[in-house]
Amino acid sequence: MGRWSLTASIVNAVVGSAIFGMPAAVAALTGAWSPAAVVLAGLGILPIVLCFAEVGSRFDAAGGPYLYARTAFGDATGFAVGWVMLWTRLLSGAAVLNVLVTYLAQLLPWVGRPTGRAATMVVAVTLATAVNVRGVRQGAWAVDLLTVAKLLPLVLLVALGAVAFDGDALRAQPVAAPNWTEAVLLLVFAYGGFESAVSAAGEARRPREDTAFALIAALLLIVAVYGGVQLAVVGLVPAAARAEAPVAAALGATLGPAGLVLGSLAAVVSTAGWLTGFTLLVPRVPFAMAGRGELPRAFGRVHPRFHTPVVSIVACAALVLALGLWGTFTATATLSAIARLLVYAVTCAALVPLRRRGPRAGWTLPAGPVVAALGVGFSVWLLSTRSLAQGWLVGAMVVAGALLRLAMRRGGRRSTPD
User: Fold this and answer.
1) What pLDDT digit, counting tens, does each position of 239-281 carry?
2) Which of 59, 4, 365 is nearest to 207 (CA)?
3) Are 56 and 198 in contact (CB under 8 A)?
4) What local confidence, expressed as pLDDT, does residue 21 receive?
5) Burial class, 113, CB count within 10 angstroms (exposed 0-12 / middle 13-18 / buried 19+)
6) What is the rounded distance in angstroms from the CA atom of residue 379 to the CA atom of residue 375?
7) Measuring CA to CA, which residue among 235, 254, 233 is closest to residue 245?
8) Which class for 261: exposed (0-12), middle (13-18), buried (19 or more C-beta within 10 A)?
9) Phi/psi zone of residue 63: left (φ > 0), alpha (ψ -120 to 50 degrees), beta?
């Protein structure tokens, strides 16, 4: 992949289902000031993205945060990060599948029934898996195409919002007591996903040079799109907090019924693009871990014709399908966001030791240790706001991974001849 394909992969990994539900939820929390909340959250995530830009520019192999943590802090920490990151994206995939069903059911009511829900999820996951088993080039082309396709309706909404902006609609966004903390937490989830995109650095033509460029360019584009969409929604839809499908409602306010259909189709295309990117990028984590002997060797198996990690791709697809059928959007998205913060904190912290003993950086972050401290502090602050029950669930996830690693190490010792 070239730098623009890598940038498209990052945009696709971030701009998924959240953009279609986020405007109403953020409007409910901060009202007419919600566009400012979008920018504020983008500024909060900026130090983390900048740390990823430098750290990622030091590596040209697959693995992303797993590889960074392993190099900086040792095998145990690397495994823990890889394990948590894998489940972060699997849970995100499950949430996206549920959004796909919800929006598609507005166009095809049968999809909303139990049988239709299951069939839709199976077809969506199967198609995305088949594209990426055939090769990185086909997967990258599909990601590029779907990224452009899903951004076009959002860009159209921003343009329509600029032309038809209604000050009365903006004033009709009542919020008794703005809750900025919860708004930022929600938006950080919406901004997440870039950490998995860098896991495919080994597939880029010039990973050391292109990773930093792709991360920073993608964040700037995403902030612009999110901010523009939020401004358009609160400027076109009075009491946007009550809109079930805010993007479709905003398009409907300017284009009529055709806008409602366009908004629903945009959500379907967005989730399809996200799933295609998911099956391109996420399986590289278990593939890299298998190469280190931390997961069964089967996960490192490569397709004899297409040279892709076929077992990892199929296994990740099967797990995300199972989680999607089992869970709801809210439950899976919440757990994904909490786990993601752990990955962010460790990657930011890795910047300092990697400067001392890591590979050469393709791009160096000015005032790197200070920015790293900001990224760690931001992540820890967000984690401190979570409930004890949520913390226990993520803790159980980490313990399960530690037990798996222990079993793999014991199995490796038994298979080693004396």
Assistant:
1) 888 887 788 888 888 888 888 888 888 888 778 777 777 777 6
2) 59
3) yes
4) 77
5) exposed
6) 6
7) 233
8) middle
9) left
Annotate 271-308 with b (16+ C-beta within 10 A) or e (fewer): bbbbbbbbbbbbbbbbbbbbbbebbbeebbeeeeeeeb
pTM: 0.80
CA atoms of 247 and 15, how far apart (whole Å): 14
pLDDT score at 377 = 95
254 CB-side CA count, 13 A: 25
Instruction: Tokens 């799933």: give the residue.
Output: 275
- Six-digit token string for 159: 């343009």
N- to C-terminal Cα separation, the chain: 44
3-state secondary structure of 58: coil
The angle formed by the CA atoms of residues 150, 151 and 154, to the nearest 5 degrees, is 105
Q: How many CA atoms lie within 13 A of 292 on its CB side?
A: 21
Q: How many residues does the chain have?
A: 418
**Distances in whole angstroms, Cα of residue 382 to Cα of each of 24, 48, 93, 189, 406:** 22, 13, 22, 11, 30
Per-residue tokens: 382:
């967000």
- The DSSP line for 192-251 is TTHHHHGGGGGGSSSHHHHHHHHHHHHHHHHHHHHHHHHHHHHHHSTTGGG-SSHHHHHH
Q: Which amino acid is at 311?
A: V
Give the count of beta carbons closer than 10 Å to the beta carbon of residue 352.
15
C-alpha distances (whole Å) from 182 to each of 28, 355, 365 are: 10, 35, 30
The conformation of residue 364, written as its DSSP 8-state character, comes to -
The token duo for 92 is 């995100």
Tokens standing for 19?
């953009």
CATH of region 3-410: 1.20.1740.10
Largest Cα separation within the chain, whole Å, is 79
Count the alpha carbons within 13 Å of 276 in the hemisphere toward its beta carbon: 28
Sequence ranges of the domains in the chain: 3-410
pLDDT for 418: 43
- Which residues does the chain have with pLDDT short of 50? 416-418
CB 194 within 8 A of CB 10: yes
Classify residue 192 by its DSSP letter.
T
Distances (CA, A) of 169 to 236, 237, 240: 6, 6, 9
Give 49's contacts (C-beta < 8 A, 6+ positions apart): 194, 215, 216, 219
